[in-house]
Amino acid sequence: MKLNALMDNKGARKGIKRVGRGMASGYGKTAGRGHKGQKARSGAKQQATFEGGQTPFFRRLPKIGFKNPFAKKYATINLADIQKAIDAKRIDASAPITIESLMVAKILNRKHDGLKILGRGEIKSAVKITAVAWSKTVEAAIVKAGGSIQK
User: Fold this and answer.
1) Within a 13 Å sphere around the CA of 1, how many CA atoms are in the beta-carbon half?
2) Is residue 97 within 8 Å of 129, Cβ to Cβ?
3) Is 130 helix (H, G, I), strand (E, B) or coil?
4) 114 within 8 A of 104, measured Cβ to Cβ
5) Using CA atoms, how far apart are residues 106 and 65, in angstroms rounded to an integer?
6) Potential cystine with 27: which of 19, 72, 100, 136 (Cβ 3.0-4.6 Å)?
7) Interacting residues of 34 by C-beta distance below 8 A, sequence separation 6+
8) What are the DSSP E strand ranges found in 9-122?
9) Distance between CA atoms of 38 and 45, rounded to whole angstroms?
10) Which class for 127: exposed (0-12), middle (13-18), buried (19 or more C-beta within 10 A)?
11) How far is Cα 86 from Cα 94, in angstroms, rounded to an integer?
12) What is the pLDDT along the chain (151 residues), one digit of tens a residue?
């Protein structure tokens, strides 16, 4: 076998369709685009939501719901997660626990509109927490452990 004799199998490569190169090519005149219409024009794209002039599906559905532009989104953490971080020595129980200290310890990754403490789990360490919001069970659990919580 010689390198200059190597060839692809028959039908392995297909030639490109050269459109708009005369009537003899079979793709002359309209170049395979049919006659007139949006798809025959250059640069025209069909919208993904276009339904042939019929009212699109998303416009047939009723408008529902309301999104409050002033809603607050809090970074939340449970008491169990705080205690786990204290046990793992990621945060110091004697220092005040704030959203910044939790971000430095990589327990939270975003501030949002403040820190909210949730009551799942229990806390054994006496901690001083600064948060924006918390539940009543959280306050009771922290005070019972000998700590305090404030805004």
Assistant:
1) 3
2) yes
3) strand
4) no
5) 35
6) 19
7) 40
8) 75-78, 115-118
9) 8
10) buried
11) 10
12) 899 999 999 999 998 999 999 999 999 999 999 999 888 888 877 788 888 889 999 999 999 999 999 999 999 999 999 999 999 999 998 999 999 999 999 999 998 999 999 999 999 999 999 999 999 999 999 999 999 999 9
Q: Name every residue whose Cβ is closer than 8 Å to that of residue 144 and which is 6 or more positions away in sequence.
A: none
Q: Is the pTM of this model over 0.85?
A: no
Residues 6+ apart with CB under 8 A from 118: 76, 77, 78, 79, 134, 135, 138
CB 40 within 8 A of CB 30: yes
C-alpha torsion sign, points 96, 99, 102, 107: positive
In three-state secondary structure terms, 134 is strand
Hey, what are 126's tokens?
């006496």
Residues 6 or more apart whose Cβ sits within 8 Å of residue 46: 38, 39
141: nearest Cα among 100, 95, 83: 83
- Side chain identity, residue 135: S
